Protein backbone atom coordinates (compact mmCIF):
# COMPACT_ATOMS: atom_id res chain seq x y z
CA UNK A 1 0.00 0.00 0.00
CA UNK A 2 1.00 3.63 -0.39
CA UNK A 3 2.53 5.84 2.26
CA UNK A 4 0.95 9.28 2.45
CA UNK A 5 2.45 12.22 4.28
CA UNK A 6 -0.17 14.83 5.14
CA UNK A 7 0.46 18.13 6.84
CA UNK A 8 -0.26 20.05 8.90
CA UNK A 9 -1.64 17.48 11.33
CA UNK A 10 -3.66 20.14 13.06
CA UNK A 11 -4.21 23.89 13.08
CA UNK A 12 -6.27 26.54 14.78
CA UNK A 13 -7.17 29.38 12.45
CA UNK A 14 -8.97 32.68 12.62
CA UNK A 15 -12.20 33.03 10.69
CA UNK A 16 -11.76 34.69 7.31
CA UNK A 17 -8.30 33.24 6.75
CA UNK A 18 -7.27 30.34 4.52
CA UNK A 19 -5.36 27.13 5.18
CA UNK A 20 -3.56 24.96 2.66
CA UNK A 21 -3.22 21.26 3.38
CA UNK A 22 -0.57 19.20 1.61
CA UNK A 23 -0.41 15.52 0.75
CA UNK A 24 2.66 13.75 -0.57
CA UNK A 25 2.46 10.14 -1.78
CA UNK A 26 5.45 7.83 -2.07
CA UNK A 27 4.35 6.57 -5.50
CA UNK A 28 2.69 7.97 -8.58
CA UNK A 29 -1.10 7.92 -8.62
CA UNK A 30 -3.59 9.09 -11.20
CA UNK A 31 -6.25 10.29 -8.80
CA UNK A 32 -6.10 11.70 -5.31
CA UNK A 33 -9.19 12.19 -3.23
CA UNK A 34 -9.98 14.80 -0.59
CA UNK A 35 -12.47 13.98 2.16
CA UNK A 36 -13.95 15.88 5.07
CA UNK A 37 -15.05 14.30 8.32
CA UNK A 38 -17.09 16.59 10.49
CA UNK A 39 -17.33 15.90 14.23
CA UNK A 40 -19.22 12.71 14.94
CA UNK A 41 -19.88 12.02 11.28
CA UNK A 42 -18.49 9.82 8.56
CA UNK A 43 -16.37 10.85 5.60
CA UNK A 44 -17.71 12.98 2.79
CA UNK A 45 -15.88 13.28 -0.51
CA UNK A 46 -15.02 16.89 -1.37
CA UNK A 47 -13.33 16.41 -4.73
CA UNK A 48 -11.18 14.19 -6.91
CA UNK A 49 -7.85 15.68 -7.96
CA UNK A 50 -6.51 14.61 -11.34
CA UNK A 51 -3.05 15.52 -12.53
CA UNK A 52 -3.16 17.89 -15.48
CA UNK A 53 -6.83 18.78 -15.27
CA UNK A 54 -9.32 20.57 -13.06
CA UNK A 55 -10.48 18.80 -9.94
CA UNK A 56 -13.93 17.27 -9.97
CA UNK A 57 -16.07 18.55 -7.10
CA UNK A 58 -18.93 16.77 -5.40
CA UNK A 59 -22.31 18.34 -4.84
CA UNK A 60 -22.13 21.01 -2.17
CA UNK A 61 -18.44 21.78 -2.68
CA UNK A 62 -17.11 24.50 -4.98
CA UNK A 63 -13.71 25.43 -6.30
CA UNK A 64 -13.76 28.94 -4.87
CA UNK A 65 -14.12 27.57 -1.34
CA UNK A 66 -11.87 24.51 -1.74
CA UNK A 67 -9.31 25.16 -4.47
CA UNK A 68 -7.15 22.13 -5.25
CA UNK A 69 -3.79 21.86 -6.92
CA UNK A 70 -2.29 18.74 -8.48
CA UNK A 71 1.04 19.73 -9.97
CA UNK A 72 2.35 16.17 -10.38
CA UNK A 73 1.46 12.52 -9.80
CA UNK A 74 2.67 12.40 -6.19
CA UNK A 75 1.45 15.66 -4.66
CA UNK A 76 -1.76 17.61 -4.07
CA UNK A 77 -2.96 20.51 -1.97
CA UNK A 78 -6.39 21.45 -0.70
CA UNK A 79 -7.05 25.00 0.45
CA UNK A 80 -9.91 25.85 2.77
CA UNK A 81 -10.67 29.47 1.92
CA UNK A 82 -12.33 32.26 3.89
CA UNK A 83 -12.83 29.93 6.82
CA UNK A 84 -15.74 29.98 9.22
CA UNK A 85 -16.33 27.89 12.35
CA UNK A 86 -18.49 25.54 10.25
CA UNK A 87 -15.31 24.50 8.42
CA UNK A 88 -13.92 22.99 11.62
CA UNK A 89 -13.40 19.39 10.65
CA UNK A 90 -10.86 16.72 9.84
CA UNK A 91 -9.64 16.83 6.26
CA UNK A 92 -8.12 13.68 4.74
CA UNK A 93 -6.45 12.90 1.47
CA UNK A 94 -6.61 9.45 0.00
CA UNK A 95 -5.27 7.36 -2.87
CA UNK A 96 -6.05 4.00 -4.40
CA UNK A 97 -2.84 2.37 -5.60
CA UNK A 98 -3.81 -1.17 -6.42
CA UNK A 99 -7.57 -0.99 -6.80
CA UNK A 100 -7.78 -3.01 -3.62
CA UNK A 101 -8.74 -0.22 -1.27
CA UNK A 102 -7.91 3.30 -0.36
CA UNK A 103 -5.09 4.47 1.85
CA UNK A 104 -5.62 7.64 3.83
CA UNK A 105 -3.31 10.32 5.07
CA UNK A 106 -3.27 10.84 8.81
CA UNK A 107 -5.63 13.80 8.51
CA UNK A 108 -5.58 17.50 9.30
CA UNK A 109 -7.63 18.51 12.31
CA UNK A 110 -8.82 22.06 11.66
CA UNK A 111 -10.41 24.31 14.25
CA UNK A 112 -11.70 27.71 13.16
CA UNK A 113 -12.22 30.29 15.88
CA UNK B 1 -32.37 7.45 1.62
CA UNK B 2 -28.64 7.41 2.34
CA UNK B 3 -26.44 5.66 -0.17
CA UNK B 4 -24.86 3.51 2.56
CA UNK B 5 -26.70 2.87 5.81
CA UNK B 6 -25.40 1.38 9.03
CA UNK B 7 -26.66 0.99 12.56
CA UNK B 8 -24.61 3.62 14.43
CA UNK B 9 -24.56 1.61 17.66
CA UNK B 10 -22.87 1.76 20.04
CA UNK B 11 -22.48 -1.97 20.45
CA UNK B 12 -21.27 -2.74 23.94
CA UNK B 13 -20.10 -6.34 24.17
CA UNK B 14 -17.99 -8.32 26.64
CA UNK B 15 -14.62 -9.74 25.70
CA UNK B 16 -14.99 -13.02 23.87
CA UNK B 17 -18.41 -12.21 22.45
CA UNK B 18 -19.39 -12.53 18.81
CA UNK B 19 -20.81 -9.39 17.25
CA UNK B 20 -22.28 -8.71 13.82
CA UNK B 21 -22.61 -5.44 11.93
CA UNK B 22 -24.94 -4.91 9.02
CA UNK B 23 -24.96 -2.44 6.19
CA UNK B 24 -27.21 -1.75 3.21
CA UNK B 25 -26.45 0.20 0.06
CA UNK B 26 -28.81 1.81 -2.42
CA UNK B 27 -26.94 1.69 -5.73
CA UNK B 28 -27.34 -1.73 -7.29
CA UNK B 29 -24.55 -0.93 -9.76
CA UNK B 30 -21.94 -0.61 -6.99
CA UNK B 31 -18.84 -2.59 -7.78
CA UNK B 32 -16.69 -3.05 -4.70
CA UNK B 33 -17.31 -3.27 -1.00
CA UNK B 34 -15.10 -2.81 2.02
CA UNK B 35 -15.04 -2.64 5.76
CA UNK B 36 -12.77 0.02 7.25
CA UNK B 37 -11.82 0.50 10.86
CA UNK B 38 -11.38 3.94 12.38
CA UNK B 39 -9.87 4.40 15.81
CA UNK B 40 -10.59 7.52 17.80
CA UNK B 41 -8.87 10.57 16.26
CA UNK B 42 -7.17 8.45 13.60
CA UNK B 43 -7.63 7.99 9.88
CA UNK B 44 -9.70 5.07 8.52
CA UNK B 45 -7.75 1.92 7.73
CA UNK B 46 -8.83 -0.90 5.45
CA UNK B 47 -9.96 -3.94 7.44
CA UNK B 48 -11.04 -6.16 4.60
CA UNK B 49 -12.72 -6.29 1.23
CA UNK B 50 -16.07 -8.02 0.88
CA UNK B 51 -16.75 -10.61 -1.83
CA UNK B 52 -19.93 -12.32 -2.91
CA UNK B 53 -18.49 -15.68 -1.93
CA UNK B 54 -17.77 -14.39 1.56
CA UNK B 55 -14.31 -14.04 2.97
CA UNK B 56 -12.62 -14.60 6.27
CA UNK B 57 -9.54 -13.11 7.89
CA UNK B 58 -8.85 -14.62 11.27
CA UNK B 59 -11.66 -13.65 13.60
CA UNK B 60 -13.34 -11.47 10.97
CA UNK B 61 -15.82 -12.71 8.37
CA UNK B 62 -17.41 -10.50 5.73
CA UNK B 63 -20.40 -11.35 3.57
CA UNK B 64 -22.05 -9.67 0.59
CA UNK B 65 -25.56 -10.28 -0.68
CA UNK B 66 -25.91 -8.44 -3.98
CA UNK B 67 -29.58 -9.35 -4.43
CA UNK B 68 -30.48 -7.75 -1.11
CA UNK B 69 -27.77 -5.07 -1.36
CA UNK B 70 -26.59 -6.06 2.07
CA UNK B 71 -23.13 -6.37 3.61
CA UNK B 72 -22.18 -7.84 6.95
CA UNK B 73 -19.16 -8.12 9.20
CA UNK B 74 -18.87 -10.74 11.91
CA UNK B 75 -16.26 -10.49 14.65
CA UNK B 76 -15.68 -13.59 16.74
CA UNK B 77 -13.97 -13.76 20.13
CA UNK B 78 -13.96 -9.97 20.54
CA UNK B 79 -10.85 -8.36 22.00
CA UNK B 80 -10.54 -5.07 23.84
CA UNK B 81 -8.43 -3.88 20.92
CA UNK B 82 -11.37 -4.37 18.55
CA UNK B 83 -13.03 -1.30 20.07
CA UNK B 84 -13.35 1.20 17.22
CA UNK B 85 -15.78 2.53 14.67
CA UNK B 86 -16.38 0.19 11.75
CA UNK B 87 -17.20 1.86 8.46
CA UNK B 88 -19.09 0.16 5.66
CA UNK B 89 -17.75 1.47 2.37
CA UNK B 90 -19.01 1.03 -1.17
CA UNK B 91 -17.23 1.92 -4.38
CA UNK B 92 -19.54 3.34 -7.00
CA UNK B 93 -19.30 2.69 -10.69
CA UNK B 94 -18.06 5.18 -13.24
CA UNK B 95 -14.81 6.89 -13.98
CA UNK B 96 -14.12 8.41 -10.59
CA UNK B 97 -14.21 5.17 -8.59
CA UNK B 98 -15.08 7.19 -5.53
CA UNK B 99 -15.79 5.58 -2.17
CA UNK B 100 -19.04 6.19 -0.34
CA UNK B 101 -18.89 5.81 3.41
CA UNK B 102 -21.53 4.75 5.86
CA UNK B 103 -21.78 6.68 9.09
CA UNK B 104 -20.02 3.91 10.98
CA UNK B 105 -20.89 1.53 13.79
CA UNK B 106 -19.23 2.10 17.14
CA UNK B 107 -18.04 -1.03 18.92
CA UNK B 108 -16.98 -0.98 22.57
CA UNK B 109 -15.59 -4.24 23.91
CA UNK B 110 -15.77 -4.36 27.68
CA UNK B 111 -13.40 -6.31 29.95
The overall pLDDT of chain A, averaged over residues, is: 93
Write down the Rg of chain A.
13 Å
Helix content of chain A: under 10%
Could you name the ranges of chain A where pLDDT drops below 50 across 5 or more consecutive residues?
Answer: none
Major pleated sheet of chain B: 6 strands, mixed
Overall number of strands of chain B: 11
The SSE string of chain A, one letter per element, is EEEEEEEEEEE
Principal-axes geometry of chain A comes out as: globular
In angstroms, what separates the terminal alpha carbons of chain A? Answer: 36 Å
Q: Quaternary arrangement of the chains shown?
A: heterodimer
Characterization of this structure:
- The complex is a heterodimer of chains A (113) and B (111).
- Chain A has 113 residues and is mainly beta.
- In chain A, strands 2, 4, 5, 6, 9, 10 and 11 form a 7-stranded mixed β-sheet that branches.
- The relative contact order of chain B is 0.35.
- Chain B is 0% helix and 52% strand.
- Chain B is mainly β.
- The chains are: A mainly beta (113), B mainly beta (111).
- At the A-B interface, strand 5 and strand 10 of A face strand 5 and strand 10 of B.
